[in-house]
Design goal:
With about 120 residues, chain A is mainly beta. Chain A contains no helices and 11 strands. Chain A is globular and about 40 Å long. In chain A, about 35% of the residues are buried. The model of chain A has no long low-confidence stretch (mean pLDDT about 90). Chain B is mainly β and about 110 residues long. Chain B is about 0% helix and about 55% strand. Chain B has no helices and 11 strands. In chain B, strands 2, 4, 5, 9, 10 and 11 form a 6-stranded mixed sheet that branches. The N and C termini of chain B lie far apart (about 40 Å). The model of chain B has no long low-confidence stretch (mean pLDDT about 95). Classes of the chains: A mainly beta (about 120), B mainly beta (about 110). At the A-B interface, strand 9 and strand 10 of A face strand 4, strand 5 and strand 9 of B.
């Protein structure tokens, strides 16, 4: 299957700093990339959808100025958590979607963020 | 009404049992159906992908789609402790918007 990587796998930062998470599709071109957030024992919560070369579409309630998403190429998307606070601590997962016979998305391994 | 409904469980079965996981949905326009497995602290892993109605088998896993009833299932035969995970169903029509179930937590007891 298609492979998506995320870096870093986990990060600890001080409150007020910014953190950048990279998401790469290693063996396919992701026409669309998604960013999710997941709290313990809860389901995925879609944060935003991005298509290569265009602005991301954010879900209701997600602050676009706080969670900056850049989808610079068909293989790379980045999520920057600006001025992180402890309530931003969570598990962030990206996925890439591409069309072969149909539609599906492949997830990265996730990034665990802890803001102190 | 939610787009996708999935029983969260938890579901606990003995090793070797047949497991049935299910989702129902409301939008008849969905054409692509997926099952993901997610281990704790990991990203979801695509298990099965089905287009339109019918069955698809891959090893111990069988995915079924019944579009007339708006019902999808994942069967796991000869379940193993390594199958213990959360299973998510996902549906889409266009590939731009996906709808996920809340996930069913499965534990296979040795």
């Amino acid at each position: 299957g298609a492979v998506v990587s995320q870096h870093p796998s986990w990060v600890i930062c001080k409150s007020g700093t910014s953190v950048k998470i990279e998401c790469r599709s290693l063996d396919f071109q992701a026409t669309t990339m998604f960013w999710y957030r997941q709290f313990p024992k809860q389901s995925l919560m879609l944060m935003a959808t991005s298509n290569e070369g265009s602005k991301a579409t954010y879900e209701q309630g997600v602050e676009k100025d706080k969670f900056l998403i850049n989808h610079a190429s068909l293989t790379l998307s980045t999520l920057t958590v600006t001025s992180a606070h402890p309530e931003d601590s969570s598990f962030y997962i990206c996925s890439g979607a591409f069309r072969t016979q149909g539609e599906t998305q492949y997830f990265g391994p996730g990034t665990r963020l802890l803001v102190l | 009404q939610k787009e996708v409904e999935q029983d969260p469980g938890p579901l606990s079965v003995p090793e070797g049992a047949i497991v049935s996981l299910n989702c129902t949905y409301s939008n008849s326009a969905f054409q692509y159906f997926m099952w993901y497995r997610q281990y704790s602290r990991k990203g979801p892993e695509l298990l099965m992908y089905t287009y339109s109605s019918g069955n698809k088998e891959d090893g111990r896993f069988t995915a079924q789609v019944d579009k007339s009833s708006k019902y999808i299932s994942l069967f796991i035969r000869d379940s193993q402790p390594s199958d213990s995970a959360t299973y998510l169903c996902a549906l889409t029509n266009t590939g731009n918007q996906f709808y996920f179930g809340t996930g069913t937590s499965l534990t296979v007891i040795p």
